[in-house]
Predict the 3D structure of the following.
Amino acid sequence: MEINLEEYLEHTGFTTPSGKGVGIAIIDTGCNLKNDKIVYTYNGFTGTTDVTDPKGHGTTITDIIHRIAPESNLYIMKGLDDYGSGDMLSVYNCLARCRDIEDIDLICMSFSSYKNLSQTTQNALNGCLKEGKLMFASIGNDNKKTPTYPSSIEGVYKVGALNADLTGKEKESNFFTYTSFVALGENIDSLGETYHGTSFANAIVVAQVANIMSDNQLSRQETTYEYLKKHFREKNRKLETAFGSLYKEETHVEDLQTTNRIDRFEGKESEERSTDQSFL
């Protein structure tokens, strides 16, 4: 049975949205939404506060996060342009801002590239990690087992997408044995449209983690991967679906181990360019 976002949140127990006290930075194409939880805006291209979003991708990501974690404070960083592209400088500028703002706990990067970051940009990213910020990046939408960036940088959580019946990966999602999290990647409704892909799964995971932090009164330093694994239900990691979805309640699954089992996939690798946000 195929489900939508509301049903997925009910399935995973996130029916009482929270996120209070958690700061979330969203590096994307900007945001057109206006609400009192957007506490900071920054344009990585111009250095101004103008984050107008003709592309709409960042607006959608923000809407999903705000719906699931409505009490979180949002920091909108425009690092991708009106066409969904960016450059090392715009992404660097946004990462440097995230690094220097103490109240940012989580960083959502729903974009990917097959080209690695420049050393300067990676240094800014590593600076965020050094400050204890939790960083999440989508792994791309080409149905490939090929590393993408920034998701493949050590310390960044890698997020893939599940299909609408939660039996395997969304057909275009990339896949790895070391994927950190997955979430629903189909039938995601936002602002009157329906979306699919790892970008939107990434937004869901970021908001779920904000809820877990808030409900359990955890600092970002206390919100380790070992802790978050308590919210998985699968015992063994799979290539296609990692450990599966995060659930709001701890499930006390023990001995989460990576297996040598490689799941079989239907279909062939896509020849099309990724529909995820490429910043190069």
